[in-house]
Amino acid sequence: MNNSWKTATTILATLFVVGLGVFGVAKLGFDFQSLSWKEDTPKEALLQGEIFIVTNGKENVKLGLVTVQITNTSGNSRAYVPDYETKSNSDGKFSIRLPVGNYKVVAQSRRYVFGEIEKYYWDVPITLTETGSTVILGNDNLCEKCIPK
């Protein structure tokens, strides 16, 4: 083997090893523009929701200004401690940006009807995907066992 062939082989092998190293470092999260390691940030998506009650099968009563508590249930040992909180607007609508994952949406409200207090509680599991998710808190998913007597 002549010297030029050995030199060419050595250069190609060196470029190959350096290329693997650079690719490996880039894959691990090294940001070459700022010359620092970047942390993986979880993907976020929009959770939208609405809170209302259907009365007498006719009208939707929108429950506004309700505090909505959201707990991340993806491996969370603090299942009853909310991680996020938002409030519905006067039309009963709410939205919040959260990391993609599994959550529990909890809310409670009350209203006065002919001198009586009606109480409403929700405890609804959801999966927030990258494209976003919508949750409706209404009559069909009230948490009857959650209402204190």
Explain what you see.
The chain is of the alpha+beta class and 149 residues long. The chain has two domains: 3-37; 44-146, Immunoglobulins (Immunoglobulin-like, Sandwich), CATH 2.60.40. The chain has one helix and ten strands; from the N terminus they run H-E-E-E-E-E-E-E-E-E-E. The strands form three sheets. Strands 3, 4, 7 and 10 form a four-stranded mixed sheet that branches. Strands 6-5-8-9 form a four-stranded antiparallel sheet, with no helix packed on it. The protein has a two-stranded antiparallel sheet with strand order 1-2. A hairpin with a 3-residue loop joins strand 3 and strand 4 (59-62).
Determine the fraction of residues in helical runs and give it as a percent range: 10-25%
Strand content: over 45%
Which topology of the largest domain does CATH recognise? Immunoglobulin-like
- Tally of helical runs: 1
User: What count of structural domains?
Assistant: 2
How far the N terminus sits from the C terminus, by CA atoms, comes to 92 Å
Q: How are helices and strands ordered from N to C?
A: HEEEEEEEEEE
Outline the biggest β-sheet: 4 strands, mixed
Mind telling me the C-alpha Rg? 27 Å
From the 3D coordinates, which CATH architecture of the largest domain would you assign? Sandwich
**Average predicted local confidence, pLDDT:** 80
- Superfamily (CATH H level) name of the largest domain: Immunoglobulins
Low-confidence stretches: 22-27
Number of strands: 10
